[in-house]
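Technical annex, item 7. During the second reporting period the consortium partners agreed on a shared format for inverse folding records so that results from different sites could be compared directly. Each record opens with the tokenized structure and is followed by the designed sequence. A conforming record, contributed by the partner at site C, is shown below for reference.
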């Protein structure tokens, strides 16, 4: 390539081009979020402190609740005698994405903690779990999705139910506005979790590599994803996430769980009685 000559200096066109690219990158930082559909993006977070098992990548699905509707459903509502994998639930309910709704009782049907919607209540008893995910607002003043801390000043479960038709109570991982609620422990497991970011978006979180929940919380808080709250959904081989939008399809399921399945051998999703699904909204909310 010929150089541009100047009485005082010369500089190649290639150097000008590279300098322009550098300035563009500084002015407009790159994002590793990948778009699947309007209001739905995903990324992988590489753990800063790797797990001893697996690839240590944490999958994050980020969803705008103004464009996507959350729905919790289970076999107590459908009248079935046994559960399904997240993939099967998605196909039956026409969900675009699905993740565990939370832990369940020994009857393999009843959600631990409150789980209810306007059309069906799976479990009407609130327990000691301090995290409540609420959706289906009853009024235009309430955001379409929010995770509440029941020990926050002025927070009452009765008020949440007045404002939202659907609520899902689970063990808390992260308290607003970003406080790790788990002390360190030796137990580790594959994890499915539900989060909220600082823009009020829904986060479906999944890791096959096992972590202690203290370490997983720290990884999420340091990942730059804006997470402010999160709740535990399920661990071990039952933890799963399924996603199918257009030609994009992913199925993920866990394996390792301390004191239950201490290996990476699980090669199939397990059926679960309750699921949390996403479908496109018929009408966009703002």
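Designed sequence (site C submission):
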């Amino acid at each position: 390539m010929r150089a541009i000559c100047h009485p005082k200096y010369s500089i190649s066109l290639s150097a000008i081009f590279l300098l322009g690219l550098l300035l563009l990158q500084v002015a407009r930082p790159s994002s590793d979020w990948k778009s699947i559909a309007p209001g739905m993006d995903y990324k992988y977070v590489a753990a800063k402190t790797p797990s001893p098992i697996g690839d240590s990548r944490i999958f994050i699905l980020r969803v705008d609740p103004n464009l996507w509707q959350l729905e919790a459903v289970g076999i107590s509502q459908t009248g079935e005698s046994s559960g399904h994998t997240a993939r099967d639930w998605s196909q039956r309910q026409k969900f675009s994405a699905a993740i565990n709704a939370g832990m369940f009782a020994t009857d393999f049907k009843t959600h631990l903690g409150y789980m209810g919607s306007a059309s069906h209540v799976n479990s009407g008893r609130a327990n000691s779990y301090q995290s409540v995910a609420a959706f289906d607002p009853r009024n235009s003043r309430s955001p379409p999705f929010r995770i509440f801390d029941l020990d926050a000043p002025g927070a009452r479960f009765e008020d949440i139910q007045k404002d939202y038709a659907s609520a899902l109570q689970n063990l808390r991982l992260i308290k607003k506005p970003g406080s790790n609620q788990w002390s360190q422990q030796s137990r580790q497991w594959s994890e499915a979790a539900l989060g909220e970011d600082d823009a009020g978006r829904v986060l479906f979180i999944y890791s096959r590599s096992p972590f202690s929940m203290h370490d997983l919380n720290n990884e999420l808080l340091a990942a730059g994803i804006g997470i402010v709250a999160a709740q535990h959904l399920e661990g071990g081989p039952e933890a799963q996430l399924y996603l199918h939008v257009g030609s994009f399809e992913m199925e993920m399921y866990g394996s390792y769980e301390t004191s239950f399945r201490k290996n990476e051998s699980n090669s199939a999703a397990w059926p679960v009685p309750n699921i949390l699904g996403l479908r496109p909204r018929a009408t966009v909310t703002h």
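Residues 116 and 166 are 6 Å apart (CA to CA). The chain has a mean pLDDT of 91. All partners now use this format for quarterly exchanges.
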